[in-house]
Structure formats: C-alpha cells, structure tokens
Design goal:
510 residues, 2 domains, six-stranded mixed beta sheet, 25% strand, globular
C-alpha cells in the first residue's frame, strides 16, 4: 500500500438495516480524495444488521464482535503495518471507542492500534436524551430508527448517565491526552445542530431540542469534557446543640480536563435522513454542494499525521464552529397564512451528577439545588438557563442537567434581518453553586446537607459551551454509635429487648 493509500472502514449506527444509511459518502470520498491526490480503499464492516436489536446484546458485545471482524476481514491488509481510518455514525462512535479503549488504550501489552484515525459523525459519546423514552416509543421515531425494534442492552448504554458511558468518558478525560498522536489515534467529532422538521415528533420534544441534531446533543457528542470530584467535609458537632452535627461544605478534590479534541459543528446537518442527515444526505456527485462542508472536513481529518497538525486543526475547527453557530443562531421557519416561527439556537452545556457516599454506596434519594449570586440563592439564576433534567432509570444516583450556556453567561440582543427584536439582551449569571439534601436525613445512618458555594470559578469550571461535565459528589455516611454497643455483664445487668434503642447523640468517627 503506497504512502498515500488509505484503508477506510465504515461503521454505521444502531438499528440500521440497509447500507443506504451511508448515502453516497463512501463513493463521494473516493472521488474527492482522488481530486486531492489521496487514494482510498474502502472496506465496510456491518455490525448492527443482525445483533443490536436483541435485548441481551450490549455495546461491549458489539465492540468484541468488531474486534473479530477486523481480525477476520482486514488482517491480510494490515500485515505490513498499515492502519485504517474509521468513520462512524451515531452509536458506531461509542462502539469503536469501547473497542479501542478495551483492547488498546488500557492494554499495556497491546501492539499499536490498527486504527489511526477515528472520525465520528454525530456520535452519542455521552448518550442521548431519547434513550430513556423506552423501546415502544422509540421504535416509531423516524429520526433514529428504520422499522426495527431497538435492543434494550444498547439503550441502557445510551441512556444519559449510564455507568458504562461514565466509565469510558471519565477515563478518557483523566488519562492526560497521551493517547492522541501518531502512535495512538487521532479522534475527531463532526456533528450538526440543525433540526429536520420533517422528523419532528410532537410527542417527543427531544426530536426538536435546540443544541442537538434531533437525536444527539452537541455537548453529548463532543469529547472535550471535564471531570470534577467534590467531597463533603468531615462532620463537626454544632456548638450548643447536643447530638447535632454539621458538614456544610463540599470541597473540590479533583478536576480534570479532557485533552484538546477536534470538534466541528457542520452547518445545516441533522442526525439522520436523506435530506439533512450528516451521513445519509451526502450525494456521490461533486455538484452536491450541500455536503461539501462535511466531505471537506472528513478529508482534512484523514490527512492529519502529526500532533502539531492535529492541534492546528483543532483550533481551526473551533473557529469554524463558532462561525457556524453564530450564523445559525436565529432560525426562522416561514409559515403560509400564519406568523413565522423563530427558533434561537444558543450553545448548551450538559452536567452529569453522580451522588454516592464515602463507603461507595449510591445515594438515590436526594434534592440537587442550583444556586447563584453571592447569597447562593436559586432565585438569582437567569430565566431560561435550565432546559432539561433526566435521572438515569438504572442508576438513580446519576442525574443529567442540560443548561443553556449562553443564557448563563449572558447574551447580546438578537434581531432578525429586518432589525426586529427577537430577544432582548440577557445579563446572565456571574456565579454557580450546588446544594445537596440527601435522605435519609436522620436515624442510625443518615446524610447531612452540604453545598459548594456559588462562585464564578465554579461557573467557568462546570459549564462549557458544547461540552459535558461529569461531577462526582461524595457524601459522608453518618453512623450513630448506638448502631453497635457492647455492654459489660455484671450481676446488676438486666437482659432484654433492645429493639427500641434510640440512635443516641454520638457518631462513629472516620
């Protein structure tokens, strides 16, 4: 294989039953690459056609099957040390990431990964808000499925805040970035933020959610995430109040930022469909100018060979993404015989909270209160900043919040082309904090309320536009001494029931 020759592997998303999901992208890339002097050899691998619809099949199972498929189908092409470029769509992104993470990133005995570039189109890296709707409701959504029943095993991974997605993403964030480069892989995320109104489902507002492509949020696709670990301080007795203790403060113990990873928001593209879908709408002919932005971005990714080139592309993609999001901030849908409808496309942030105690037990019953301002008052949060909240159905200690980052930061006034005011300028919030009230809050074993005071530092740390932050909150498990007592036996000692024992005034240390 010559130096310019590239082996290209396509991995489609979930619930696909026909290779037309790729649209004309494989052929179009060949044509465009030849014009650019790049020779492309295409090899397609099909995973979801027969296994992802069964409830017992999980993402990890599919990644294992991907490993076997690579060994069986490509081993003869990789014997000379050649590597392949992988282009994925939707759930294909997490599948290939799990394969790479499992067999190469964390395997110290592994040889160099045969995949050199991972180009993910609309990947559900942190999941999708749609996944919690359930199999019956999802199976009829045209924006995601194509006449098949979804498998519960994959849905569990895709639900926001799943433990599998948390593990994969937290380890990616905290590993320091050494995995990016010519001896690791070069990862890229290309995603849209436009809604194909033909696929909008009036019963499921997520299909028209701003900041998403109708299925996956930009913040959930982007790999540039943050991990924060907050630990509650040790309990101290309350002066003058016998038997009462306080542990008011949460302290920042750990903060990690993911390595700089290429993100490019593509203008005018939605998740699926042959009209706007980021993959399927691409036509084979070069006169398809609507997909030139997608194709050119893929070709740019494929030609990266050094860390310096990658860093330069990350910066260029960031500038181009800012331009696209500014251009698409105001969408006006014209209606015949009715008033036009205006949609404001701000930039959004996702924060996924996981609450557990210092013994490792999940805390599922809690109130999470957001605060702002110097007085840590929820009423100081700006109107319109909060968009959605979703608790994971399998791991209820995990809850995902979706915020309008631009509203939190403050925005200029928005006007249409006729200079008519669409939205007034918004001042935003200068601070952000969290307050946790967990239950049980009394008894033999319980939890004390705590908070991290609102501050500008927390706002800047936790909320990044187009990004997801994972926040681990570790509470102190308060145990009263009367959970276990040892009574000395004497002639005066009376034996009997202790079922009415009270918790007492003292607590167990440590």
């Amino acid at each position: 294989m010559s130096a310019k020759s590239t082996l290209l592997v396509f991995v489609h998303g979930w619930s696909v039953t026909n290779t037309d999901t790729y649209g004309g992208l494989p052929e179009r890339l060949r044509v465009e690459a030849e014009a650019a002097g790049i020779s492309i050899q295409i090899k397609e691998i099909f995973l979801g056609r027969y296994i992802s619809f069964h409830d017992e099949v999980r993402v990890t199972d599919i990644s294992r099957a991907f490993r076997t498929a690579i060994e069986n189908e490509l081993s003869n092409l990789l014997q000379d040390g050649s590597r392949f470029v992988c282009i994925t769509h939707s759930t294909g992104g997490p599948v290939v990431r799990d394969w790479w993470h499992r067999y190469y990133e964390t395997n110290t005995q592994a040889s160099i990964c045969p995949m050199s570039h991972l180009i993910m189109l609309a990947p559900a890296n942190y999941g999708s808000a749609l996944a919690q709707l359930g199999k019956e409701r999802l199976s009829r959504l045209k924006s995601w499925f194509e006449g098949v029943e979804p498998g519960q095993g994959v849905l569990d991974w895709l639900e926001l805040g799943s433990k599998e997605a948390w593990k994969l993403n937290s380890e990616w964030i905290c590993n320091g970035g050494s995995q990016i480069g010519p001896h690791g892989i070069f990862p890229f995320v290309l995603t849209g933020q436009s809604i194909d109104r033909a696929f909008y489902d009036n019963l499921n507002s997520y299909t028209g959610e701003t900041g998403s492509d109708g299925v996956v949020r930009v913040a959930a696709a982007n790999l540039c995430g943050t991990y924060i670990r907050l630990v509650q301080e040790a309990p101290q007795p309350v002066t003058g109040r016998r038997g009462e203790f306080s542990a008011k403060n949460l302290h920042m113990e750990t903060i990690c930022h993911a390595p700089n990873t290429a993100l490019r928001v593509i203008g005018g593209k939605s998740h699926s469909g042959d009209k706007m879908g980021i993959m399927r709408s691409v036509k084979e002919k070069r006169n398809d100018t609507k997909s030139s932005e997608t194709v050119n971005a893929i070709l740019e990714c494929m030609q990266i060979t050094t860390e310096k080139q990658y860093e330069e592309l990350c910066n260029r993609f960031r500038t181009e993404t800012e331009a696209v999001q500014k251009a698409e901030q105001l969408e006006i849908e014209q209606k015949l015989f009715r008033s036009d409808i205006c949609f404001v496309h701000d930039r959004y942030a996702m924060v996924i909270f996981r609450v557990q105690d210092d013994e490792g037990y999940p805390v599922a019953d809690f109130d999470l209160v957001l605060t702002a301002g110097p007085d840590a008052d929820p009423n100081h949060l700006p109107k319109g900043f909060f968009v959605d909240r979703q608790r994971n159905s399998i791991s209820p200690q995990t809850i995902t919040y979706y915020f309008n980052r631009d509203v939190m930061k403050g925005t200029e006034a928005i006007k249409d082309k006729d200079n008519s005011l669409i939205r007034e300028a918004l001042p935003g919030a200068e601070m952000l904090g969290f307050r946790i009230i967990a239950r049980p809050d009394s008894g033999f074993v319980y939890y004390l309320p705590c908070e991290i005071q609102s501050s500008s530092e927390m706002l800047q740390t936790a909320l990044h536009a187009n990004s997801t932050t994972l926040v681990d909150i570790i509470l102190r498990r308060i145990v009263r001494k009367n959970v276990f007592r040892v009574d000395k036996v004497t002639v005066e000692t009376k034996r009997g029931s202790f079922k009415n024992t009270k918790p007492g005034d003292e607590i167990v240390e440590g």
